[in-house]
Amino acid sequence: MTDQARQKAALAALEAVLGTAAVERSAKILSRYATALATPIGVVMPSDVGQLTAALATAKKAGAVLQPICNGAHGLEKVGLDQVIVLDLQRMNRVLEVNESLAYCLVEPGVTFRELDAYIKGKGIKLWIDFTGNPDASVAASFVSRSAGYTPYSDHFLMQCGLEVMLADGKMVRTGMGAMPKSTCWQLFKFGYGPWIDGLFTQSDFAVPTKVGTWLMPVPPASKTFMVTVSDEEGLAPMFDVLGPLKLNMVVANGVAVGNALHEAALLGRKRRDFAGQGPMAASAVKAAGQLMGLGYWNLYGALYGLPDNVSLLWDSVKSAFGSVPGAKVIANGEGVDPRLWSWRMGTMTGAVASPPTQVAGWSGGQALTVNPVSPVDGEEVMRLYALSRDACAQHGFDLLSETVAIWRSANHRQFLPSAGGDKNSVERSRQCAEALIAMQATAGFGQVFTEPGLRATVDKTFAEGGLSILHDKVKKALDPTGLFASA
Fold first, then answer.
1. Where are the alpha helices (DSSP H) in 96-214?
2. Which domain holds residue 230?
3. Which part of the chain is the FAD-binding PCMH-type domain (predicted)?
4. CA-to-CA distance for 184 and 176, rounded, in angstroms?
5. 476 in the same domain as 423
6. pLDDT tens profile 131-177
7. Which of 138, 151, 253, 478 could form a cystine bridge with 70, CB 3.0-4.6 A?
8. CA 321 – CA 90 distance, rounded (Å)
9. What is d(CA 392, CA 412) in angstroms, rounded to the nearest whole number?
10. CB atoms closer than 10 angstroms to residue 84
11. Are residues 28 and 117 in the same domain?
């Protein structure tokens, strides 16, 4: 039996066990999960732990390969292996607990940031949610992928506390204090007793998450959001030289976003054709595009939090620090900035869960691959990464659209490579550019913090040497010896 025939037979067996409502084969639905490199053969959507247990047992018996996804309803989680069966947990979407006094939540994997926000607002709970920029993303998936947001709770891996997973053999495991019956601190103390293992279940194919606990931020007494624009391309380095100490000393405590003019233009729904003809845009053209929209070549978004008097004191220092950057403009009232961009950017830093003005992928073609390197929060290093990435993109005929989020001591970069989904040549060009970027960045010492489905093998090559990959393989064989779960 071929792999495809085996997968189809497994899908039929899953439908027989779970019912027709739990299985989807339509081309329209499958397209939500597809990438330029892979299309699933079907989707299985268990509604609870009982159905999940039955699904794993049935799939394992049939020799199937599953790719677990927390919530694929909005097309935000994709497959990396062609003809895989997607195990989509979107119907497991209960908010199990929100504790206002201790500031945490416990959710099933299908819960989105928008749904959690509605729950909190509906009960009048005074807690903020940190989200990754798309309100329809899964809360659990943001932990699994180790994503970042824009408030002081931007590090979603760090803010996770307490996890429940189902292993390939159907056994349920609770981590941390949740492993102890009647624990009072499952969502309060991350580590429990003995080895801490939560990280094994992020960016991996070792198990399926069924419950995730997350710390939430109490609404602060006061906050002040601001924007800093820098007019020239070379202004990136001094901007980050100022930002570094402010982050290190937790003066500017939020996940500070820095978007270049093209990224912000795309975020506002502008198209490449609005600014340029053929070929990668020169620095002067990028600068002009920013000026046309009242933006800089680089645009930084930060926030201060605390007691009102403290925020006022901090603001004077921060304004003076960024004001020292050549060509910088510090904006606190949104004057001259598109109200849609100002409202959304400021809201992301103050607990407002809302859709961005539009999706960056619309810049040119409607879909995009991303490359996701990490650098120090250091002007020289950030500029070095930017310059090599800009030049590599230009060699492949792409503009560099980028957003960087500075969290603690590192800056997570997201570089977009738009393509036209129906154009195979366009898709292939973006893939080739992504692979070249990943290789060049690794050679320069910049590793990836996340990878798109289908590009894992490219990233794996940059981490392949040494014992880490051997350790990963040993854990995989121990937890999933038959390979039930697929890698993205």
1. 113-122, 139-144, 156-159
2. 222-452
3. 36-211
4. 11
5. no
6. 999 999 999 999 999 999 999 999 999 999 999 999 999 999 999 99
7. 138
8. 45
9. 19
10. 24
11. no
Tokens representing 261 are: 């003019």
Average pLDDT value for residue range 228-257 = 97
Task: Pick the more confident residue, 452 or 103.
Answer: 103
One-letter amino acid of 265:
A
Sign of the CA dihedral with 244 first, then 245, 249, and 251 last: negative
Q: Into how many domains does the chain fold?
A: 3
List Cα–Cα distances, 179 to 164, 174, 175, 281, in angstroms.
9, 5, 6, 55
Q: Are residues 315 and 228 in the same domain?
A: yes
CA gap 255, 263 in Å, rounded: 17
Interatomic CA distance for residues 395 and 391, integer angstroms: 6
CA separation, residue 334 to residues 142, 313, 343, 386 (Å): 29, 21, 9, 27
In contact, 218 and 260? CB cutoff 8 Å: no
281 pLDDT more than 80: yes
Kindly report the average pLDDT of the chain as a whole number.
Answer: 94
Shared domain check, 257 and 117: no
**pLDDT bucket at 290, cuts 50 / 70 / 90:** very high
Instruction: Please give the structure tokens belonging to residue 52.
Output: 């999940």
Domain endpoint, select from 218, 241, 258: 218
The CB-side HSE value for 122 (13 A sphere, CA atoms) comes to 8
HSE of 377, CA atoms in CB hemisphere, 13 A? 22
Whether residue 177 contacts residue 189, with contact meaning beta carbons closer than 8 Å, is answered with yes
H/E stretch holding 406: strand 401-406
State mean pLDDT over 106-116.
Answer: 98
Cβ distance 170 to 56 under 8 Å? yes
Q: For residue 303, give both structure tokens.
A: 């926030």
Residues 121 and 46 in one domain: no
pLDDT of residue 37: 73
Residue 475's contacts (CB-CB under 8 Å, 6 or more residues apart) are 200, 206
Assessment of whether the complete model's pTM goes beyond 0.90: yes
Residues 182 and 238 placed together within one structural domain of the fold: no
d(CA 295, CA 221): 30
Across 78-100, average pLDDT: 95
- Please state the length of the chain: 488
Same domain, residue pair 208 and 238: no
List, in sequence order, every residue forming a beta bridge with 209; answer none if it has no partner: 165
